[in-house]
Design brief:
The protein has 248 residues and is mainly alpha-helical. The protein folds into 2 domains: 50 residues; 166 residues, Hypothetical protein af1432 (Orthogonal Bundle), CATH 1.10.3210. It has 10 helices and no strands. It is 57% helix and 0% strand. The N terminus is likely disordered. The structure holds fe (ii) ion. Fe (ii) ion binds next to loops.
Length: 248
């Protein structure tokens, strides 16, 4: 192949040679460049892989720290620990099914920490055997906001903080603390309230036996539109049989 010539000039072959142009030396130089670039690429790739591994390890350590914190906050009995773990796993599965898991990578922290604000509620209220007074309810109902304030300034925890703040909101606006309605409640919080209720219904508690899965599903359907987002319930019900197993 020859380069295009300008009008009126003859094409000049590339291998025409000439004073100062040493083809062998040029090729040798190019090979040195190619080797250097190859070496540079390999070292950068190795470095990128090391950084990725370090980032993954950091993320795991971060999640483990948050999980430990959640368990310390709530680990009053074996039920609570497994309840948190199931809420996290079921919540993540539901977020994936909704196709929004990638948009909210910190949602699982919110699922684990939903009741973390209870550290701000006195023990005598938390473990009171009888019904709470109106004043005690007011204190108890502050726990979503207390939890939100604990998380709101932590980087990358925006969704987690919203889940914590909104986990007692109800679809029809009758929940607390803000009385948000329908889509005003962030989707991850709407998803959480379904998995939280489902797990509570299908687990043995000291005061009642676990409900069969079918009955819990019927309860979710009955409360779709009042307590729960009916569209999200519709996505969750077919997922029940595929929920990840949690070791007991
Ligand atoms: Fe709560």
């Amino acid at each position: 192949m020859t380069p295009r010539s300008d009008a009126g000039q003859q094409p000049v072959p590339l291998d025409a040679g000439g004073p100062g142009l040493d083809q062998d030396a040029l090729e040798a130089q190019l090979q040195v460049f190619a080797r250097e670039i190859g070496g540079l690429y390999r070292s950068q790739k190795a470095r990128a892989e090391q950084l990725e591994e370090a980032l993954a390890a950091l993320k795991t350590a971060y999640l483990e720290t948050i999980r430990s914190f959640a368990f310390v906050v709530e680990a009053k009995d074996a039920y609570t620990g497994l309840h948190l773990e199931r809420c996290r796993a079921y919540g993540v599965a539901l977020m994936e099914e909704l196709g929004v898991a990638g948009d909210h990578p910190d949602a699982e922290y919110g699922f684990l920490l939903h009741d973390a604000g209870k550290v701000g509620v006195p023990e005598r209220i938390l473990s009171k055997p009888g019904p709470l007074t109106a004043a005690e309810w007011r204190v108890m109902r502050a726990h979503p906001v207390i939890g939100y304030q604990m998380l709101e300034n932590i980087p990358f925890m925006t969704t987690a903080a919203e889940i914590v703040r909104c986990h007692h909101e109800m679809f029809d606006g009758s929940g607390y603390p803000q009385g948000l309605k329908a889509e005003e409640i962030p989707l991850p919080a709407r998803a959480f309230s379904i998995v939280d209720a489902f797990d509570a219904m299908t687990t043995d508690r000291p005061y009642r036996a676990a409900m069969p899965t079918e009955r819990a599903a019927a309860e979710l359907t009955r409360m779709a539109g009042t307590q729960f987002d009916p569209d999200v319930v519709g996505v969750f019900l077919p997922l029940i049989d595929r929920l990840p197993p949690i070791a007991t």
